[in-house]
Automatic annotation (TrEMBL), chain A:
It comes from the Eukaryota. CDD domains: HPT. Its main location: cytoplasm. Gene3D superfamilies: HPT domain (1.20.120.160). The lineage of its organism: Eukaryota, Viridiplantae, Streptophyta, Embryophyta, Tracheophyta. This is Histidine-containing phosphotransfer protein. The modification Phosphohistidine is found at residue 108. The keyword Lipid metabolism does not apply.
From TrEMBL, chain B:
It holds the Pfam family Response_reg. This is (wild Malaysian banana) hypothetical protein. Residues 25-155 form the Response regulatory domain. It comes from Musa acuminata subsp. malaccensis. Keywords: Phosphoprotein, Two-component regulatory system.
Length: 180, 213
C-alpha cells in the first residue's frame, strides 16, 4: 500500500516540539535568526557588488573570543586613516605645479590600507589614480580622485550599517542567558 | 611605541625546558596603523610563539635595536632582544631598505634576520633587498602562512653569534584550537533533532501498520 501524504505528521507538532525544547529562548531565537539573515544578505551583497574581496574573510578568520570586535576595530582604524589621506590628497591636488610623486605616495598608502581590509573597489580606483599620476595627467587624476572619494564614502556607509546590525545581533550566549 | 606582549611571558626565551616552544620576539615596523594591527593579530594568533614589539617608523626601530646614533646606546639587553625584524618597505623618512642596510651594517645587529613586507611585487626591489641581506620579501596583505614562515628564519646557522642566536629548531606550531565552548543551545538543538527523528519514525511506523491492516 502507498504511503498517504495526509498521514505526514502535522506541522503544528513540530511547532509544539520547538516550543517545548526552546520555551525560554524561542522568541529570541526567531529575532536572532532574522537578524542573522539580514546580516548574511548584507555581507553577500557587499561581496557580490565588488565592494569587498577575500581579504575581508581573512580578517574575520583572525577574530576570536579574546578580540571579538577585531574586524570592526580594523575597519574603524582604516576609515580614520583613509580620511586623513583623502584630505591630504585633496590638498595636494589644489597645488600648482602638481607634485605627482607626492600624490602617488599618498595614494600608495591609501591603496595599501584598502587592500588590507579587502576594500576591492577602492583599491581598484586607487590603482587607476596612480596610473594617471605616472602619466602626470592632472585631469585624469582629478576625475579618478572623485571616484576614489565616492567609493570611500559608499563603503564607509555600508560597513557602518553592517556593523551596527552586527552589534544588535550580539553573541548567542547572551540571548540564552537572558531567559534564565 | 606600541608594545604587544603575551600575558605571563616572563619565561627565559633561551630555555626550552622539556621541549616547550621558544618565544620569538618580533619587531614589526610599519607606518600604516591598519597593517600594524593586522600583523600584530596574525602574530598573536600563533599560539604564543611570537612576542611582538611594534613601531611606526624606521627611526623608532633603530631605537629599539639600540642602533640610534645620537644616543649611542649599547646593544640591546635581554628585555629588548629582538629575534627577527619584520619591516614594511615603503615608509616616510627612513624606508625599510634604509633600516635593512642599517641593521646589516652594524656588527651588533647584523645577525638579526630582517624580512621585508611590501604591497608592490617589484622584482628589482626584491633583488636589492635580498642582495643586502633580507631573509625574505613578503607581499602584503600578509597571510597566516607568511607569519608561520617567520619562525624558520630564526634557526641558527653554524656557531652561536652574539645576538638573536639562542634559538632552537622550530617546532611544529600548536594546532589552533577552535576555542568554541559547548553551548547549552547546541545541546537543545541536538535533543530537538533527536525528538524530530523519533516523531517521524513513530508516524511512519503507525502509517505502515494502518496501511497493512
Amino acid at each position: 500500500m502507498a504511503l498517504h501524504i495526509s498521514s505526514a505528521p502535522p506541522i503544528s507538532a513540530f511547532h509544539h516540539l520547538l516550543c517545548f525544547f526552546f520555551h525560554d529562548t524561542y522568541p529570541e531565537m526567531e529575532y536572532a535568526s532574522s537578524l542573522q539573515r539580514q546580516l548574511a544578505s548584507m555581507k553577500k551583497n557587499l561581496f557580490d557588488q565588488g565592494y569587498l574581496d577575500e581579504q575581508f574573510y581573512q580578517l574575520e578568520e583572525l577574530q576570536d573570543e579574546s578580540s571579538p570586535n577585531f574586524v570592526e576595530e580594523v575597519v574603524t582604524l582604516f576609515f580614520r586613516d583613509s580620511s586623513r589621506l583623502v584630505a591630504n590628497i585633496d590638498q595636494a591636488l589644489q597645488k600648482y605645479p602638481q607634485d605627482f610623486r607626492r600624490l602617488d605616495n599618498f595614494m600608495h598608502q591609501l591603496k595599501g590600507s584598502a587592500s588590507s581590509i579587502g576594500a576591492a573597489k577602492m583599491k581598484n580606483e586607487c590603482t587607476s589614480f596612480r596610473e594617471f599620476c605616472n602619466k602626470e595627467n592632472r585631469e585624469g587624476c582629478l576625475r579618478s580622485f572623485q571616484k576614489v572619494k565616492k567609493e570611500h564614502a559608499v563603503l564607509k556607509q555600508k560597513l557602518e550599517n553592517y556593523f551596527q546590525l552586527l552589534r544588535q545581533d550580539g553573541p548567542v550566549d547572551k540571548a540564552t542567558r537572558s531567559g534564565n | 611605541m606600541e608594545e604587544v606582549k603575551e600575558e605571563g611571558e616572563e619565561m627565559d626565551v633561551n630555555d626550552c625546558g622539556g621541549g616547550g616552544l621558544e618565544v620569538v620576539r618580533v619587531l614589526v615596523v610599519d607606518d600604516s596603523p591598519v597593517d600594524r594591527k593586522i600583523v600584530e593579530m596574525l602574530l598573536r594568533r600563533s599560539e604564543g610563539i611570537f612576542d611582538v614589539v611594534s613601531v611606526d617608523s624606521g627611526k623608532k626601530a633603530m631605537e629599539v635595536l639600540g642602533l640610534n646614533e645620537i644616543e649611542a646606546k649599547p646593544p640591546n639587553h635581554d628585555d629588548q632582544k629582538i629575534d627577527i625584524v619584520l619591516t614594511d618597505y615603503c615608509m616616510p623618512e627612513m624606508t625599510g631598505l634604509d633600516l635593512l642596510k642599517a641593521v646589516k651594517a652594524n656588527s651588533s645587529s647584523r645577525s638579526i634576520p630582517v624580512v621585508m613586507m611590501s604591497s608592490e611585487n617589484d622584482s628589482e626591489r626584491i633583488s636589492s633587498c635580498r642582495a643586502i641581506g633580507a631573509e625574505d620579501f613578503i607581499l602584503k596583505p600578509l597571510q597566516v602562512k607568511d607569519v608561520q614562515r617567520l619562525r624558520t628564519y630564526t634557526v641558527p646557522i653554524g656557531p652561536m653569534s652574539k645576538r638573536g642566536s639562542k634559538r632552537k629548531l622550530p617546532m611544529a606550531l600548536i594546532a589552533e584550537s577552535n576555542g568554541a565552548e559547548a553551548r547549552p543551545l547546541l545541546a537543545k538543538v541536538a535533543a530537538f533533532g533527536s525528538a524530530v527523528f523519533l516523531t517521524l519514525n513513530f508516524w511512519r511506523s503507525s502509517v505502515m501498520s494502518s496501511s497493512c491492516n
